[in-house]
Design goal:
The complex is a heterodimer of chains A (265) and B (628).
Chain A: E1 2-9, H1 18-31, E2 48-50, E3 59-68, H2 75-84, E4 90-98, H3 110-113, E5 114-123, H4 132-140, E6 145-150, E7 153-158, E8 163-169, E9 175-180, H5 193-197, E10 210-216, H6 225-236, E11 244-255, E12 258-261
Parallel strand pairs in A: 3-11
Antiparallel strand pairs in A: 1-3, 1-4, 2-3, 5-10, 5-11, 6-7, 8-9, 8-10, 11-12
Chain B: H1 9-14, E1 38-44, H2 48-51, H3 55-66, E2 70-76, H4 80-89, E3 107-111, H5 118-128, E4 143-147, E5 163-165, H6 173-185, H7 190-197, E6 203-204, E7 209-213, E8 219-224, E9 233-234, E10 262-265, E11 267-268, H8 279-282, E12 287-288, H9 291-305, E13 309-313, H10 323-337, E14 340-342, H11 350-359, E15 367-372, H12 376-382, H13 388-400, E16 405-412, H14 419-437, E17 449-456, H15 473-489, E18 496-500, H16 503-513, H17 519-528, H18 542-552, H19 556-561, E19 575-576, H20 581-592
Parallel strand pairs in B: 1-2, 1-3, 3-4, 4-5, 9-19, 10-13, 13-14, 15-16, 16-17, 17-18
Antiparallel strand pairs in B: 5-6, 7-8, 11-12
Helix pairs in contact in B: 5-17, 6-7, 9-10, 10-11, 13-14, 14-15
Classes of the chains: A alpha+beta (265), B alpha/beta (628).
Chain lengths: 265, 628
């Protein structure tokens, strides 16, 4: 049986790197004594597949991994047992049993399905009060190129093309949409519903302006918060630096041209 | 969300591996500070990944936190990147649990596992804002206590500690903490507390002893300042390992640490009596845990951590009487849990080969021997009860079972060593390779791979070699070159690889190991000039140490190269490990005569450890299978 686990990573655990998060879950699964499946071979490892690494310092309410169990189990039991093995800074939010793979189809793991992500960002301390105009300009712009380091030198990337939705968060938590091409369902507010649920573990530093970005993600065109930050610095005419602190609200797959939560893919 | 971090996000994103500094690990103790009387900061003065690998800290952490009135938190040396930031921005050293300044604690306990951590001890005190010298501390400073193997001769760092706990930590801390509380309650001072602590067995308060020196630099007298302070400090010993505390919930680090596994301590002490080995003397008498107790602990450790590897730890696992029973029970359980077992310090015999075949990947792992010396004569001098026959038959069993990699550990510069002994190392390596090629070709898997490693013999306190001279760095290098050349001359030279250990670190380690109180200035000045992380080759600054040796007149000749006479007062003579000085001297004489002493299982040699009335001294055991 295969299942997809949704989890949140927050608080001090935001300083844990991706490899350590994977190790953490391997240990947690062993503590929860789940009937996890192992790969074959002399050095068997748990069959786990993590959706997408989260950069250091980024918190999240929308992380996923897939696991394979050797026995059937109710989704609620899976979620509860795993949750009991969590430490402060991790919480299991969902467990979803995946349908058996149809014969003669390509194996779909969480990783290969990723097409989009939504981030709640806010100005870092040194950029406090400095980004609002740049975000407006970014949303209005047709393109915004930055140089991205690659394996063979550098490459010019149009960040704007990979950004599908931009919004400013008002004082009361409602969103003022600056750009929206309709690919994502942008939340109306962080005070209720999806927006509330998926911003629960974000850190809010008093006085920092907040923004929501809905972006392309995954292997084809991955737009990181860092790239957006760089584009904003260019627009603001300031030296590049870490201008955005980020919280991932959700990861998405693409179905019939629309972004849907990875949980339900 | 965890404790409010001591470091800002900017700093944490600048330094390497920020997870070193955030705490919050699985099985970390969380307590309400308003209900705590005693705050104990427990420090391993090295980087997080090294410190978190240490079982002793896990034991004491668990034990302290079982007390309701005490909160024990951890602190490690900040890595060099953070060290620089903390100095520049005046950030005080903090603990991981509550991220609070170490200076606010009642105690700072520092474990001293190797001499090369001494400058890191000063780094920790300095970053914490605690005066380096115990004499300069006030009522507001924590009591700084040292423990661990280096406390058997703590003299080089004596001035930096308020007291040392000599011996095993499980036994006397309750008494010490109760005493501390009572003293505080009646308004007693730091000095009052230390005076009372000195009355507890095993507690050495350096400020309560006076040392005078002769003109030649040796000690003239070492005396307590008052009649109520004991002249001899007898170490603490756990008499029953089955009833003493053992952490059933070991802390599980997020980072991959040096020893990335749970540790099951089978026994303490070693019956072999190798004459160079300090652990073999200071942890006497040998005491075992029962197999039933060990299995219970093992299950609970795996349940509460989810670790996928377990290490059976002991100075000499093969001497543990319950080993087959324990291993065969745990092998199956571990397989079911997908946990791998590791058994270091196993002598290679039929049992070992069978076990290793079950728990290791024959193609990838290697088998290890520690003959320590290349000839039988030399092995008799050091009392290493391992013969060439044992090694060759062990190796050929392992070869037949599919291994082709062998690791061999030796020491250079052992007392009485000659060129023949040095050459013997290469010849032994060659003989092992010959065993491999003597097998029919169809049984072999490619080339044999015999790795020879040598380290520089360091004479340690409380060993029969404590009076012996070490060889100089130059002689050591000559012997290394000789060995290298001899290895190349061997018939199977292509199957032999030779690795050596750097001599400069060992020279300094030798000075500290048998050093006296006058070295504190040397250590402090080295620290002031930028020495930290001396145990890390890439950070070891020999030129600074060398410069200071010349400047302060710290003589390698005096500390390392001379033979000490029997009647010389040694800097550690006031410490009593149970094993008598007379026994050690008898062993020293027998070493010179190349006479072997049987191990404790065969015959009691009357070392003196029986004074503790436990372990092998009261319950002799016999093991089948002879000596391998």
């Amino acid at each position: 049986m295969k299942a997809r686990i949704g989890f949140a990573k927050f608080g001090n655990m935001r300083f844990l790197g991706h490899l350590d998060v994977m190790r953490y879950f391997q240990h947690a699964i062993a503590r929860a004594a789940l009937p996890i499946a192992y790969s074959a071979g002399y050095h068997p490892h748990m069959i786990l597949s993590f959706a997408q690494p989260l950069a250091l310092s980024v918190t999240s309410d929308g992380e996923y991994f897939d696991l394979e169990l050797t026995e059937d189990m109710e989704a609620s039991e899976l979620r509860d047992r795993l949750n009991a093995a969590m430490c402060d800074g991790f919480a299991i939010t969902d467990a979803h049993i995946l349908p058996p793979q149809e014969p003669n189809t390509k194996k779909q793991t969480g990783m290969s399905q990723i097409a989009g992500a939504m981030y709640l960002c806010e100005e870092t301390e040194s950029f406090r009060g400095k980004l609002a105009a740049a975000v407006e300009a970014f949303a209005a712009a047709k393109n915004a190129t930055v140089t991205k380091p690659t394996k063979n030198g550098e490459r010019e990337v149009d960040v704007r093309a990979g950004v599908h939705g931009v919004a400013v968060v008002n004082e009361d938590g409602t969103l003022r949409i600056l750009a929206d091409d309709g690919v994502f369902a942008m939340p109306g507010s962080l005070a209720e519903g999806f927006g509330e649920q998926r911003s629960r573990h974000a850190i809010h530093r008093e006085g920092s302006a907040r923004f929501v970005f809905a972006v392309s993600a995954g292997s084809e065109n991955n737009i990181s918060v860092e790239l957006i930050g760089e584009a904003l610095c260019r627009l603001a005419g300031t030296d590049a630096g870490r201008c955005l602190a980020a919280h991932r609200m959700e990861l998405y797959g693409c179905r019939d041209g629309a972004m849907v939560s990875l949980l339900t893919m | 969300m965890g404790a409010k971090l001591a470091l800002s996000e900017d700093i944490l994103l600048t330094v390497e591996k920020p997870a070193r500094y955030i705490g919050g690990e699985i099985n970390m103790a969380i307590k309400d500070l308003s209900k705590i009387d005693i705050r104990f900061a427990m420090c391993f003065p090295d980087v997080y990944e090294v410190g978190m690998s240490h079982l002793g800290i896990q034991i004491l952490y668990d034990m302290f936190n079982r007390r309701e009135d005490t909160y024990c938190e951890r602190v490690y040396s900040p890595w060099t990147d953070l060290d620089a930031i903390m100095r520049e921005r005046h950030i005080p050293l903090f603990t991981l649990e509550t991220q609070s300044p170490v200076k606010d604690f009642d105690f700072l306990g520092i474990t001293l596992q190797y001499e090369m951590c001494y400058t890191n001890v000063l780094q920790v005190l300095d970053l914490a804002g605690i005066p380096l010298h115990a004499a300069d501390r006030t009522e507001d400073d924590p009591i700084v206590v040292g423990g661990g193997p280096c406390t058997y001769n703590p003299e080089p760092i004596a001035e930096f500690f308020d007291f040392f706990y000599i011996g095993e930590g499980e036994t006397a801390y309750d008494e010490i903490l109760d005493l501390y509380k009572a003293n505080k309650k009646r308004g007693g001072t730091r000095a009052d507390f230390l005076r009372q602590v000195s009355h507890i067995q095993g507690m050495y308060v350096p400020s309560l002893y006076e040392v005078t020196y002769k003109e030649d630099g040796t000690i003239a007298s070492f005396t307590p300042v008052a009649d109520d302070v004991p002249a001899k400090v007898l170490k603490q010993v756990v008499t029953d390992l089955d009833t003493c505390v053992y952490p059933e919930k070991q802390l599980l680090p997020f980072l991959k640490v040096v020893q990335d596994r749970v540790v099951l301590e089978l026994q303490r002490g070693c019956t072999r009596g190798c004459r160079f080995c300090q652990a073999g003397m200071i942890y006497r008498p040998t005491r075992e845990r029962s197999v039933g107790h060990l299995c219970d602990i093992a299950r609970s450790l795996l349940d509460t951590t989810g670790q996928d590897e377990m290490n059976l730890s002991s100075l000499s696992s093969s001497d543990f009487s319950g080993l087959p029973e324990l291993v065969y029970t745990m092998i199956d359980e571990c397989r079911e849990r997908h946990v791998s077992l590791s058994l270091p310090s196993l002598r290679i015999d039929s049992f070992a080969v069978d076990v290793m075949q079950k728990v290791q990947d024959v193609n990838r792992s290697s088998i290890t021997f520690a003959p320590e010396a290349g000839t039988q004569r030399m092995r008799n001098v050091i009392n290493k009860g391992l013969t060439e026959e044992d090694i060759l038959s062990g190796a050929s069993k392992a070869f037949a079972a599919g291994w082709n990699k062998v690791k061999l550990y030796f020491m250079l510069g052992l007392p009485t060593e000659t060129e023949t002994d040095v050459a013997g190392i290469a010849e032994l390596g060659n003989a092992i390779a010959r065993e491999y090629y003597a097998m029919p070709k169809e049984l072999r898997h490619g080339k044999a791979n015999v790795t020879i490693s040598t380290s520089y013999f360091i004479a340690k306190p409380f060993t029969p070699f404590q009076w012996m001279p070490m060889i100089s760095k130059d002689v050591f290098l000559t012997r290394q070159r000789l060995l290298k050349a001899t290895v190349q001359e061997q018939r199977n030279a292509k199957s032999l690889v030779y690795h050596w250990h750097d001599a400069e670190t060992s020279e300094l380690e030798g000075i500290f190991a048998r050093g006296d109180r006058r070295l504190s200035e040397f250590i402090e000045k080295a620290y002031r000039r930028g020495c930290i992380y001396d145990a890390w080759t890439e950070h070891f600054k020999y030129d600074i140490w060398k410069e200071l040796m010349d400047e302060l007149g710290v003589s390698v000749e005096f500390y390392n190269l001379r033979e000490r006479p029997y009647d010389e007062i040694l800097p550690w003579d006031h410490i009593d490990i149970g094993v008598k000085r007379e026994f050690l001297y008898r062993e020293y004489e027998k070493a010179k005569q190349e006479i072997v002493t049987p191990n404790c299982m065969k015959q009691c040699s009357g070392c003196g450890a029986a004074v503790f009335g436990c372990g092998i001294c009261v319950k002799p055991r016999k093991k089948d299978g002879g000596e391998v």
